[in-house]
Prior knowledge:
mainly alpha; 74% helix; 13 helices; MetI-like fold; single chain
Amino acid sequence: MTAARHGSRASHRVGHIILRAVVTLLMVASLNFILFRVIPGDPAGLLLGGARSGTTTEQIEAQRQRWGLDRPLIPDQLLNYISATVQGDLGYSFKFRGRRVGDLLLERLPATIALVGVAQIIAIICGVMLGIYAGWRRGGAVDNVATAASLALYSTPAFWLGMLLVVIFSTALGWLPGYGVYSPGVTIGSLEWLFDYARHLILPVSTVALGLLGQYVLVARAAMSDVVAEDYMVTARAKGLTSGQMLMRHAFRNAMLPVATLVTLNLGYVVAGAITVETVFAWPGVGSLTVEALNARDYPVLQGVFLLLGASIVLANLVADLTYGILDPRVKQ
């Protein structure tokens, strides 16, 4: 009877989370639709080559009718957008001459995931471990150096850090390429291309990873510092447990609760890319696509990018809720 009751509560909780996610996505889609139409500029004129192309008013109006821009914003365009989005149709790009938004996103996603995904993995492993150790050995040399360096990295703009790395390792030393994905003339798919791709990836990955590293170190250190001061840690020491046993049996798991939330939420931003970093390194990912679409007033692409970001954040929150249930059984009650 008790097991059935707990199962019913768990099912109700999961259903509530899913319903909340659906409502959130609908709100994000509606907000995206309205937000990007506030941006100055007429996309119909851009479709015809801009204001300097000598287009007539009739030509611009014909484009507006073709793309449905002549219809009332609310409710016609909004309802059509929501209906198409639910069916998986994100529309067609203005700037890229009618290409599907979904195809553009799928084309740019691998580069972004390679950049931000690798940087996240490096930052999570190094940052959490360093933060946990610094919090466990508070006041030591590692703690002081790690905290100072983390504060400096956390407060440094990513684009400035990226340009600094380019100046040092690309311009001055000439060790690494400073922009692009691969060098001209390299055969795509070959071993030489793979090595060249990895070399181009080092500087942008280092930029993103260093920016995230400080955040993970500070959060993990603060969480571990709070856990060390708890009464049950004093009791565990009084029972004769070694430092290693106390760390692995009690401190680490409890300190990971706030860290898990930060990790899952940051992973939700992987698909969005690092816009400033991709711009500095001319990296052809979703972040660069966002800048291009913003400059061209390409509403469908902007809506697709932010809808993808919203969906990834909602999924990340779902993973965070499930992770909390694993790390802390009290969340299931």
